[in-house]
Fold these 3 entries.
Entry 1:
Amino acid sequence: MALLLCTTAVMPLAFAANPAAAQTAPAGSDLANAKLLDLLVKRKILSRAEANELLKEASGGAQATPAKRAAPTAPAAVAAAGAATGAVAGNAVTTTPPADGAVHVTYVPEIVKKQLRDEIKQEVMAQAKDEHWAAPGTFPDWVSRLHVYGDMRARYEGDFFPSGNDNTGGHPNFNAINTGSPYDTSRANQNFPPQLNVDQERNRFRIRARLGVDADLGDGFSAGIRLASGENDSPVSENQTLGNAGGGQGGDFAKYAVWLDRAFITYAPWQDEQQALSVTVGRFDNPFFATNLLWADDLSFDGAAVSGKYEVVDGVTPFFTVGAFPVFNTDFNFATNQPAKTPSRDKWLYAAQAGADWKIDHDSKVKLGAAYYDFQNLEGRTSSPCIVNSSADSCDTDDTRPSFAQNGNTYFPLRNIVATSNNNFGTTNQLQYFGLATPFRDVAVTGRYDFSHFDPIHLWFDAEFVKNLAFNRADIASKAINNRAGTTDGSLGAFEGGDSGYYINLSAGAPTMAQRWDWNVNVGYKYLESDAVPDAFTDSDFGLGGTNLKGYIVGGNLALSKNVWTRLRWLSADNISGSPFKTDVVQLDLNARF
């Protein structure tokens, strides 16, 4: 540390080169300063060499050639630096003769004192910053790489059913059958299969809570984990109905379950407004540009996805996403009650999307995307001939039934049950599971137009169209047991299912609730035929979930603060085909985020 000291200056600092010299120093400020520095050395706050070097520099190197002083290595060096700076800052003149071995400097100009203070402070604080031991309110480097976030939603939901819905057995709950015991289609016991509620209105108070952590791992890598509420393991809803006794949860103020909702690792070698590339594996958010016509907002994807974009000309940025996602992995020991295991028929989704963002001018921009979603082995398969004597027996295609479903897709019986004396030659014990009647290979086109001329008020329009290219009406009609027209004699009517759907929505207001009194309103129309998409992954609110639905969605949002807002929605849906069904859902939400 270089010090520009006046050679004629005298400073009242006395310091002995050894402890004995310090003990013989005269009384007064010299002695006090010498004892102070000696005490700092004894307490190992400063080394003897550091103290001597500080004195040599202050006196212009009178005793020895200056050497670079090492930085203090403990947090207490901040106090030592302050004490040393104060010792050289005095202006009193010593009149007592110095002790042997002591060096006196009786005056230091103000500019030198300031330089000394600044250099000591900079050196010590630089080390403090690097080692995180002196700067108040700071944390270790790994803490700064973590981003903790979360949100909470409290909801009132009213589920209302207009008159005219079919409550005579026309709405089987295929999900309840396929996730439970098989149903006896012979109806020898005269029981109906599990049915959906179509006429008893409900008022529900529900919550959704999510807590996540994203971590920057450096060199383009990141990872994330998120936990979420949910009254069951439904992939499309994180709602928990308060007081719900279903699924062994809730009721009598019992605690609720928490689920692993996200767990992923991402590698993004570059990421900015003009270009980006990322590879993500694990369980993560929907990577595709889409509305909730196909995919529920709460849905997570399992698997791997690669996404990228590149601005080719000013304002035009093409993008792409490709991915492979396991939908269902066969039980390793299927069938568990048989020594010979059944071949695996794992279900996969392979998907690709390409599109472009186009900023037309300062006030207008468009985003368009075209996607292909190829579901492998999602449809059911008829089993080889099998003997079923009880609900514990299995057939070789039982695992082709959906492991989760909502409502709307077309089904057919999976088991080819052999007629024996045990089932009265096919008239009893026809214990069945049910599979999807069609494969799904969907083409979807999605678009958004955003007009921001009246910013912060925007007008935007969303639209999406989907068609199932694998749909074969004649094949499905030959085996379908639902989505048929009603008849007066109770026989099976004509198959009425379809393969297409579309959604349009017009919104006005603030695109996001960013500050108090931000608002937006929207009105939309949705039309989704029975077998356009798998009903398992669609919005769980419209029509209480699934496909084979058409109707309106009207709603609005209002921000109460930067991080709290409320939403009111009305969703009105009717069946497109099959037994009559109508529902009106009203939702009032209070949302918070952090």
Entry 2:
Amino acid sequence: MAKTLPKTDIVTVGVGWVGGIIAAELTKKGYKVVGIERGKERSTEDYFMAHDELRYAERKEMMQDMSKETITFRHDMKKRALPYREWGSFLIGDGVGGSGMHWNGQTFRFLPYDFEIYSKTVERYGKDKIPAGMQLQDWGITYDEMAPYFDKFDAMAGLSGEANPLPGAPQIKYPTPPMIETPVTKLFKEAAKKLGYHPYHMPSANLSENYTNPDGISRGACQYCGFCERFGCEYGAKASPVVTVLPVAKKTGNFEVRTHSVVRKVLHKNGRATGVLYVDTRTGEEFIQPAEVVIVSAYQMNNIKILLNSQLGKPYDPKTGTGVVGKNYAYQTYLGRARGFFDDKEFNLYGGAGALGAQIDDFNGDFFDHTNLDFLHGGTMHITHLGDRPIANNWVPPGTPTWGKEFKEKSTFYANRNLILAAQGASLPFQDNYIDLDPTYKDAFGDPLLRMTFNWKDQDRKLQKFLGDKSEEVMKEMGATHVLKGGDDIKDYDIRNYQSTHNTGGVIMGASPETSVLNSYLQMWDCENVFVPGASAFPHNSGYNPTNTVGALAYRAAEGIEKYLKQGGSLV
């Protein structure tokens, strides 16, 4: 029998960016917060001398243990889903700080178009522009309403960046200057400008200079070591929950973190949550943590799983399009790219940082006319100087043998002579791309696994081809001798091929309970003292990385939670 613990004001299910921001904001106001974290405690000391590509990048040291909990996957409803046994297309973080520990630090605000995508699309192109089966909907909040929360996240993280020169793009003043210009970013910018585009340095959570944020947290500048994505930062230069918001919460004395603890269910009765049921994975003991407010703040996938296993909210039915939990799962298109090989140029590709790069937004959102195009939205086109580690980076021009003398010679020659121009595209929701509970497979605790049903649509394939063509154009202008272009003839979505960890949707926000799980404060329509911030709240995915929008929504949720604790009831 589960042991019932003393009641707290707030319990968070997960202690990453969302749980950390909410803990920091509410403990400063005097509220007691308990954070339940499935993984272990983490600190910058864990990463001293930890530049081990095999351990972290290839063997996924910081990711969720798939032998205990995974997902099942299929391309369509006619097929049987099978368990995902090896990390591939996306990576779910584990431990205090969550995926906010192993991210690259590329930090963008979603566009005004994103928050009102249905209204703005219909206004400009008419309803017939939206293809059958595409479930576009507005978010129930506008960019202007979100702007103050974006500002709070930027100031907390100390984002380094510069204004986007594209006409019509939001003008953002970042707390710190952009990261350094390199020969790679300079070459890209010059080529893009010659083609009439508007390049700029991407906003970075890897600090360009020493910085102290409004909470008094001081961090040092990035050292450009090249070990960001899939790694923790031993300098603390990369913004993460462990070096920004969690120290603030802990300093108040009002915050407690319980590690190695997996939440199985949110307990509820008569439309109100009473707390959570969790398991201490070291002992197998079960506990009930009562709370006035429950915050489901885990990774996007786990948020959906917890709600479905808790029987909170109406599960989505893809056949009728009714129901809401599991609806609008969206990934990210990332195959419309171009890799260039340079016979006459050599670069230092082993130094770098996770968000050191430049990009254009000329083909993102609705900045360009889609009237004669057979897709909606778009994507960013960017060149990054991440620091190419030796195991995963061994590119040779098309037509090179995959072994033997010629392969070795070209591998050596092109090791510092190849660049990739990546195009990260939006993923828009469709009626038959969704998440539910698997009827066959269970996790280590006996709960059903999540089942993902997802595949690329014509929308995705055409967008990726368009971005691939544009990427090739810029790469040729940069002077590449050989160009390997992506985006053509996109096959089925391959869950084994890593693209991004930008999973979104499934517990979406909106303007009504008929079409969404959450209101604009990320409060559940069906259970007023449950809030579910995170990328699971996105009704679609943009051409940008999600973290800045996740963080801004977490600040808004924290504001809403305080209002709820004072007045109760629905906040909208």
Entry 3:
Amino acid sequence: MIHPPKCDLNRRAILAGTSAGATLIALHHFSTRAAANQAHLRLMETTDLHVHIYPYDYYSDRPVDTVGLARTAAHIGEIRAEATNSLLFDNGDFLQGNPMGDYIAYERGMNVGDMHPIIQAMNAVGFDASTLGNHEFNYGLDFVLNSIAGADFPVISANIVCRLGAEPTEDTPLVTPYVILERMLTDGAGLAHPIRVGVIGFVPPQVMTWDRRHLEGKVAARDIVETARAWVPVMKDEGADIIVALNHSGIGEIAHVDGQENASIPLAAVDGIDVVMTGHQHLSFPGPAFAGIAGVDAKKGTIHGKPAVMGGFWGSHLGVIDLLLEYDGARWRIARHESELRPISRRNEDRTVTPLVESERYVLDSVEKEHKETLSYIRRAVGRTSAPLYSYFALVADDPSVQIVANAQLWYVAEMLKGTPYEGLPLLSAAAPFKAGGRSGPEYYTDVPAGDIAIKHVADLYLYPNTVRAVRVTGAELKGWLERSAGMFNRIVPGGRDQVLLNPDFPSYNFDVIDGVTYRIDLSQPSRFDPKGKLLDPSATRIVELAWRGKPVADDMEFVIATNNYRAGGGGEFPGATGDTIILQAPDTNRDVIVRYIAEQGTIDPTADNNWRFAPMPGTTVLFDSGPRAIEYVDQMTALDIEPAGDGPDGFIRFRIRL
């Protein structure tokens, strides 16, 4: 096992080693100003690491500067050097989330005595405690228990239990509900004093739905706030000076709701909890994403006046809470506090990324073998595709690269909805082409040849780390959703020749194709919405002949649409996708679902089913630009009357479509 230089809780180090060499670090002002009865304690948080250790995107098979515990570890060393005393916590979701996690779960395995690479890396960095997140259960109970058995730190969770008792304190826990860390604090006079830091962990109870196949009949989940109210007094009775909640749960509803998924606000109101470390939402706190919420100070980083952080995801940020503690003769209490985030990279206005730290070599070395094995894994075929997957014509016809995403979402959501009240509703799937030229240039297209398909090819099919969502909509909202998508096209004059088809201000990722229904787009009509989703003409109707199983869709019909968290939460301003229609918040990314679908099918048939077309406009032609390689596939576009029309601007090739 490779470890960094020993870094005790009690220290006044002023040198921090980084990959760039030793750097002089000034102590935090809480450390320099602490009096004889005061001590500075620095708490650090990582959350939602999802097996991101190396700064590497295994999907695209290339290094990146925006992820990786090896990068976050550079900040951890600096933070320890800036404080007299420090503790490091992880807030869960560490075992699953990228191909390294899948490699360990599906290929190498986790038997008793095996070491998981994320645990190896966390041991090397020197964590003091961690909680379980919902994704820890994705591979089953044996997997998570075998994995955390190798941890040099306690892994806790209070609300996931093997057997329910009359109240939480009488439950039979799956793992230790909480831990009391006994440490020595160095005060402002340089004297050491004992302190007892209570740490308790929580996970969203929705894990019982998300991983029903692994957990049903084996464990149960309690409400987060209910569990906290029961256990915190016990921790106080055991002498905890301060209590830190490792809450793998986001900042959501203000009031407590039984079974709440994002329960950090009511949790912070529980008497006796001093610090709340949050996560699960893959957001950053303090930060503007949480501005304007009652009880939350998004600038200072407090919830109900108590210090809190959410350290991004994949190692993107280190959450830091500084506590100035005072001893009142019996216990330590918090006199002052500050919250901040330390990012590992900066995104520039030109979309480039500047790394702010370099990777710590000892972290990379701790999992170098597993990293190399993962590279071999992602470069191997996980299935085959019977036809090429390309997006050159995704904006003008039903498309194989979009079709396979829609198919995978349908397959996944249908399984997730079994046994729920929504199982019998018509299930549809919305997917958009992400790589479709435009301002990104003539090479910016998906292009995966027929034959073996590797995990890294999934990056060509799905660019973003979205998670799966399902929404319940009416027939009227379904039509409105498609009207919003149809804003991709300029209005075409019937009988006109060689009119420009696409609106250049409309991004391709907002051109949702919805599978499970059939429809046509009448380009002679005005768009109902502008490119940003603003309603222009409520009576405008481009979507015609909308049908489900051959029958016209009525406004009062109900449907479930499989989509992603961006769209379901209101991204793109789509009717029916406004955040309040969500019926399923799945724990898996769309990328992971596609990989699993391909592996399950063995050989996929991505042939588009042509469920949508343009309405006929006799004597009318339009022009459409695509990438140069589109010419190799134009003969396959049997649903279109299309022909090459010479060169387009800026390296594109032009096509003419007869409507």
